[in-house]
Amino acid sequence: MESIDAHSVVIFGVLLVHVIGVIVVAVSTVVLVTALLVVILAVRACRSMGRAPHPNKQIRSGHILAAQRL
Q1: pTM
Q2: What pLDDT digit, counting tens, does each position of 2-11 carry?
Q3: N- to C-terminal Cα distance for the chain?
Q4: Count of domains observed in the chain
Q5: What's the DSSP call for residue 62?
Q6: Distance separating alpha carbons of residues 25 and 30, to the nearest angstrom
């Protein structure tokens, strides 16, 4: 059985580094997309809460919800 030569070790090292790099990029992408989704949902929630009428505030006729018009 022949021993492992330097070329095989280098090829294996390069392959290992590339696989680890792909895994790091994939995990980073998943984390960034998840964070972006959370931020988008939080901003939408804050904006929708800002549009809701306050209990002590009178609603002007132009701001009546569609469900209240029926």
Answers
A1: 0.57
A2: 677 899 999 9
A3: 86
A4: 1
A5: G
A6: 9
